[in-house]
Amino acid sequence: ELSPAKTITTTTVNTPLSHAQLIDATQPLPLYTISDAVSSSKMYERCFALFVYDPDDDAFYGFHSKRHYWVSGCHKLLGSIKNLAFLLRKNFPERFQGNESEELVIPVSSGDYPGVRISCIDGSDDSCSHQYKYAPILHFGSVFRHPLMFPSIIAMPMPSSHHLLCFKTWTTSNTVCEQLRAVGEIGNEIGLEWGDLIPQVVWRGTDFSFLARVPPILIKPQFQERLINWSQHLTMEDKTTKKTGGQPASDAATKKRRHNYVRKLAAETKTTHVNKQIRARFTKATAVESLMEQYAHLLPRWKAALLTADAEVKASSQPTATDDAQPWADMRFSNYIHSGHKADARGAKDYREWESIGLDITGDHKSLEALARYKYHVDLGGGGGTTWSGTIEKLAMPGLLFHHFTPTKDYVHDWMTPWVHYVPVSSDLLDLKEKFDWAESHPIQAKKIADEGTKLMQFLTSPEGYAQMYQKNIVEPLRRVIEAYQPVSIVYRQTHWRTWREVLQEIEGDDVWFSLIKCSGISVRSCEIGEIPDNKYTKRASRQYMAGHGK
Question: I need a labelling partner for 301 at 20 to 30 A (CA). Which of 31, 381, 430, 441 fits?
């Protein structure tokens, strides 16, 4: 029998609390300066800005560094800066009074997950080990879950309609946005009892990447490369062992001999003819078996689709199986990315080869009302390792949420407790079937957890609950950062520098930071967009700058 997971405390008496933990513990953040804010930028490679309040203009600026890449996802940074300026002006008007006030500099980033350098993630860069000395960074998006991994990064609401834009609505009108009110009402609209819900794990969503630049790199399987060629490659390996004397040896000479033989065999093979022969031998069961050998390398959403196919094969192979035998899982793609936009996956060319051998990895689109009729849900992580709308929608449904526990999290996850509001499943989903079996054999406990999850979302989408969330996830982080910043007039009063611009120029020079956006903060729309660099330009400028400065 599975038991509720115990919370493992990783912070010891000798380990400083992360900035987010300090805020939760109502403790002040470490004091920081503009120099510290600039230092924080050095662990990033994209989608980072210095957010600056300039008293002379009584305006907020977003500055981008030529060290950093500008990629398509960085448009989220502009939206975050617009909303941040508005939230600061509305919640702390006394702090922003033009020439009567001091400047404020805040490191800000945005995106599916922080755009930090890979060398900082894998630990190969020693300079990233001093992260506790960095200024607090407000990241609007998913953040790394472990509190000791980038401890200065604070999770802020994601720049999407269910999150940051809803906090803007609350700031303006003191009302919960329509999108969240609709989420909170999902559980009340179906009117089904627990026993009436369909006992399957259901998921519909987009065929999308998963933490694309974070090791280990996972893949989307290509039909030719990962199924046809994979089988052909294994056949070649079997033949090679006979030519090179049994199992592969560890010495370099034998490895090279085997490698050369496989290349020669591949060159001599009539690929088209062999492909047709191999394809003819494939059934749904053999295809599933072949892909299962590569399971560890697949994206989580492809893992889920493969688990569904495996469940279908096993359900149909049971001695008592009927034509309508129901597998335990129904997790399929309803959308995919085509030419940069979402498109229907059902019937799309990209999936026809899979469907030709019986792998129905795409499915019809299901509305929230249709999904709510299922007993079990899973919120499979996407580009940033989480799903920005899926978690709260599925938590609100009458069924039980199997929460996809990945290396990243969102601000709203801190309101959720494992085995109270949801049942956690591992990032690789290998325990999903086990958790499903537990829920099926423990319906009373499963229903209780499902009910608590629904109640939590009903509370958070109510005026009372949203007011608490606004204070915890907007007002308090901003207040602590404002209190921690030490202005130029205090830190550099013994120098000839008088303004933040002079200090920034002295630290970085004239040609590193440039203005992306200027906002008054009076409204989200009161912003002027500066010159947005194209991707090629920023990559070239970044390389030139790094080479010129010996980085």
Answer: 441
Q: Which amino acid makes up residue 443?
A: P
Tens of pLDDT, residue by residue over 50-96, are 999 999 999 999 999 998 999 888 999 999 999 999 999 999 999 99
> Peptide bond before 216: cis, by omega within 30 degrees of 0?
yes
Cβ(164)–Cβ(178) under 8 Å? no
Q: Which of 117, 309, 143 is nearest to 221 (CA)?
A: 309
Q: Where does the pLDDT of residue 531 fall: very low under 50, low under 70, confident under 90, or very high at 90 and above?
A: confident
pLDDT of residue 188: 76
User: Mean pLDDT across the chain, nearest whole number?
Assistant: 85
**pLDDT, tens digit, for every residue of 440-458?**
999 999 999 999 999 999 9
Question: In whole angstroms, what is the distance from residue 104 CA to residue 500 CA?
Answer: 9
Contact 88, 548 (CB under 8 A): no
Cα separation, 478 vs 484, in Å, equals 10
Query: pLDDT value at position 226?
Result: 57
Q: If you count DSSP H runs as helices and E runs as strands, how many of each does the chain have, helices first?
A: 23, 15
Amino acid at residue number 345? A
In this prediction, residue 14 carries a pLDDT of 60
Instruction: Identify the CA nearest to 304 among candidates 182, 164, 420, 436.
Output: 436
Opening angle at CA 519, ends 518 and 521, nearest 5: 160
Distance (Å, rounded) from C-alpha 502 to C-alpha 38? 14
Q: Are strands 48-54 and 59-65 parallel, antiparallel or unpaired?
A: antiparallel
Backbone angles phi, psi at 61, to 5 degrees: -120, 150
Asked if residue 388 lies in contact with residue 160, where contact means CB atoms within 8 angstroms, the answer is yes
Terminal Cα-to-Cα distance of the chain (whole angstroms): 55
| Angle at 205 (CA atoms; ends 109, 345), nearest 5 degrees | 120
Residue 353: name the closest of 230, 222, 235, 205 by CA. 222
pTM over 0.90: no
Q: How far apart are CA 428 and CA 240, in angstroms?
A: 33
Report pLDDT digits (tens) over 188-208: 777 788 999 999 999 999 999
Q: How far apart are CA 492 and CA 498, in angstroms?
A: 8
Strands (E), 474-545: 513-519, 527-529
CA distance linking residue 145 with residue 413, whole number of Å = 10
Give the bridge partners for 137, in sequence order. 153
Nearest-10 crossing angle of helices 300-316, 432-441: 60
